[in-house]
Amino acid sequence: MRRNRFGVSAALVTGAVAVAGLAFAPGAAAVVPQAATITADCGLYGGGGATLTATQNGTSATITLSSDEITAPLALAADSVRSTLTLVKAGGGTTAFTGTKNPAMAAGDGVTVGPLPGTVAAGDSLEAYGGSLKLVVFGITITCTAEGPQSPGPFVFE
């Protein structure tokens, strides 16, 4: 009887440790690469290098764009820029990431928008080249396009 209780207790402890291990295990990176760089042309508003950072949780994904070279033309309040980042799918079509998330920026500060939410499917391969970033600031639409493929390559979602 005593050995039976010990066996049950050991099994319960082992199960609890396994569950705790799963709860605290780091999540696997679902999108590869997690960051990519582009050179963007924003027409009359300038342009330059920018970094795209992607995350994924199931079919939900976010992308944040940040740049020290693309600068705010005026002081901007937090969450005041309406942004749509459209990426091109490898098999055809596009996926849009849209939102109004941005930090407050002083005139001349580097631009950061996002995280911008979007929906992806397993196997989606998304590229900035051929797509666009549209920023609506004080009712004025600024459109930026990538001058070439992103580096190190397209975002591939699991």
Automatic annotation (TrEMBL):
Name this polypeptide is given: Lipoprotein
Keywords associated with the record: Signal
Extent of the signal sequence: 1-25
